[in-house]
C-alpha cells in the first residue's frame, strides 16, 4: 500500500467499524437478551470511533486521485455530513440508555443507522470511478461494514458472560450466526468483484508489476480475512451450544483481528488494482 492511500484506508476502516457496530448493536438491542450496560458501552465505543472517522475525514485534502487511483470528490461532503449525524446519534443513543430512556435511544440508533447507510453509499460513489461500477464498491464496503460490526459486537458481548454467568446463551449464538453469514456474503462479493474487469487500472507512482492473482497480499486477504475467521466463527457457534462462553469469546477475539487485517489488505489491494475485494 502506498503512503498516500493510508489516510483513506484509515478513514474507511474507522467508518466501517463505527457504522457496522451501530447496525449490529441496534439489532441486538431490539432483539433483547443483551444488557443495558452492554448497549451503553457499545454506543460509547461507536461514538468515539465515529468521532475519529469524522476527524480523519476533516484532515484530508480531497483531490481528483489518490496516487493514481481516480476518485470522485463530490461525494465527500455528503459522507462527512452523514458521519456527523452518526456521531451525534450515537451520543444520544448512549445517553438515552444511561438515563433509561430506551425508546429515545433506539430512535437515535435507527437515525444513526440510516445515516450510516448514506455514509457507505457516499464512500462507494467516491471510490467507484476505476472499478467496474458503483455496485462494486457499494457491495464491498457494505459487506466490510457488516463484517467489522458483527465480529466486534459478538466479541464484546462475549465479555459480559465472563462476569455474569446467568445471561442467556441465545444472543451469543445469534451473533455468531450473523458473523458467519456476513463473512460468507463477503466472500461472494470478493469473488464477484474479482471476476468482473475494472474500467480503469490505477497508475500509482510505484506500480506492482504482477496482477492481483500474483500478489501475495490477495491470498493473505482471502486466507486471513475470510477463510480463517469463518472457521473461528463456526467454532465459536459450536462452543456456545455447550455454554463455553469463555472459549467462544476467545475465538471471536482472534476472528476480530483477522477480519480487521483482511479489511486493511482489501483496501490496499483496491487502491493498487481498482478491485474492491
CATH topology: Formate dehydrogenase/DMSO reductase fold
Strand order of the largest sheet: 1-2
* Overall geometry: globular
Mean pLDDT: 94
User: Structural class of the helix and strand makeup?
Assistant: mainly alpha
Give a quick set of tags describing it:
globular; mainly alpha; 75% helix; two-stranded antiparallel ribbon; 8 helices; Formate dehydrogenase/DMSO reductase fold; 277 residues
Question: Would you give an account of this structure?
Answer:
By secondary structure, this protein is an all-alpha fold. The chain contains 8 helices and 2 strands, in the order ααββαααααα. The two termini are 14 Å apart. The model has no long low-confidence stretch (mean pLDDT 94).
Question: Topology, pairings included?
Answer:
Layout: H1 6-31, H2 36-58, E1 65-66, E2 69-70, H3 76-99, H4 102-127, H5 134-163, H6 170-195, H7 216-240, H8 245-273
Antiparallel strand pairs: 1-2
Amino acid at each position: 500500500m502506498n503512503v498516500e492511500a493510508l489516510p483513506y484506508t484509515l478513514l474507511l476502516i474507522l467508518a466501517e467499524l463505527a457504522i457496522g457496530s451501530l447496525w449490529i448493536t441496534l439489532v441486538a438491542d431490539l432483539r433483547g437478551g443483551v444488557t443495558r450496560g452492554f448497549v451503553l458501552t457499545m454506543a460509547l465505543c461507536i461514538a468515539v470511533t465515529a468521532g475519529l472517522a469524522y476527524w480523519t475525514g476533516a484532515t484530508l485534502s480531497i483531490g481528483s486521485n489518490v496516487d493514481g487511483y481516480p476518485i470522485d470528490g463530490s461525494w465527500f461532503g455528503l459522507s462527512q455530513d452523514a458521519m456527523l449525524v452518526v456521531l451525534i446519534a450515537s451520543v444520544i443513543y448512549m445517553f438515552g440508555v444511561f438515563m433509561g430512556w430506551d425508546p429515545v435511544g433506539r430512535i437515535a440508533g435507527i437515525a444513526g443507522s440510516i445515516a450510516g447507510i448514506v455514509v457507505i453509499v457516499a464512500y462507494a460513489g467516491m471510490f467507484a470511478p476505476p472499478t467496474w461500477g458503483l455496485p462494486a464498491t457499494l457491495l464491498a464496503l457494505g459487506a466490510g461494514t457488516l463484517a467489522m460490526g458483527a465480529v466486534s459486537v459478538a466479541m464484546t458481548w462475549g465479555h459480559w458472560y465472563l462476569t455474569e454467568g446467568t445471561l442467556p446463551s441465545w444472543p451469543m449464538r445469534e451473533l455468531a450466526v450473523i458473523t458467519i453469514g456476513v463473512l460468507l456474503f463477503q466472500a461472494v462479493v470478493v469473488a464477484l468483484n474479482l471476476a468482473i474487469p475494472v474500467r480503469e487500472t490505477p497508475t500509482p507512482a510505484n506500480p506492482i508489476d504482477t496482477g492481483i492473482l500474483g500478489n501475495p497480499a490477495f491470498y493473505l486477504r482471502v486466507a486471513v480475512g475470510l477463510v480463517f475467521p469463518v472457521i473461528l466463527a463456526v467454532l465459536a457457534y459450536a462452543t456456545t451450544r455447550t455454554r463455553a462462553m469463555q472459549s467462544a469469546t476467545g475465538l471471536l477475539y482472534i476472528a476480530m483481528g483477522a477480519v480487521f487485517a483482511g479489511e486493511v489488505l482489501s483496501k490496499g489491494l483496491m487502491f493498487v488494482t481498482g478491485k474492491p475485494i
